[in-house]
C-alpha cells in the first residue's frame, strides 16, 4: 500500500520525529548536537517555521513547530536533513544514509495537546533513563521554558504565554506541568499520532482540518482529549 503524503497545514502545530537509520546514533559528541541546533535555527527562520519545543536524543529527535506556510516544515526538514548528513559523514569519515527514511509528523490540536506535547518532549530523556529530570538534560528546550537559559531556536506558542502574567509565573506553571507528567496512554497517543501520521484532536478539530486538506487526516474517530494537569501520572 502506498504511503500517505505527510499532513502539513499552515498555522497548525506539528509534532515531528526524525530517527537514525536502524536506530543508530546520529550524534558523536556535543559539537554535533550544537551543529544540528544551529542548522534547525537557520532553516526554521528561512522556512518561516516557529519551533516551540525540541529534544535531541542520541538516535532521534523531536520537534514541535508551527509553519506559516504548508511548505515550511518540508522545506526545513529537507534542508536540515541533507546538510546534517553531509556534515556528520564528513566528520565521521562515513558514507551513506543517516536517517531512517523520511521524517514522521502530524498535526495536533493546540488547545488540547500542545502543552502535553511539550511535556512529552521534555520527558524523553527521563523515559530513556539518561537524565533524572528534564532540567539535567542539555539538549532540549526545557531549560528555556523554566528560565535556565535563553534559547534562540525557541518561539513560545501563544498558549504558553497564557500560563501566567509574569515570566516567573509562567516558568513555575510550566515546571509544575512537567513534574505532573503524562499517563502511559497520553504518551502512546502522542507517539502513535506522529509515527502514523493521523491528526490528534477532538472530532470537531479533525473535521475542520479535513476541510482544509485533500489528504485523509484520521483513520477513525478522534481520540479522547487530555490535558497535562497536576495529578496526571
TrEMBL record:
One of its GO terms (biological process) is DNA transposition. Coiled coil: none annotated. GO terms for molecular function: DNA binding; transposase activity. Pfam families: Y1_Tnp. Residues 9-124 form the Transposase IS200-like domain. This is Transposase. It comes from Ramlibacter lithotrophicus.
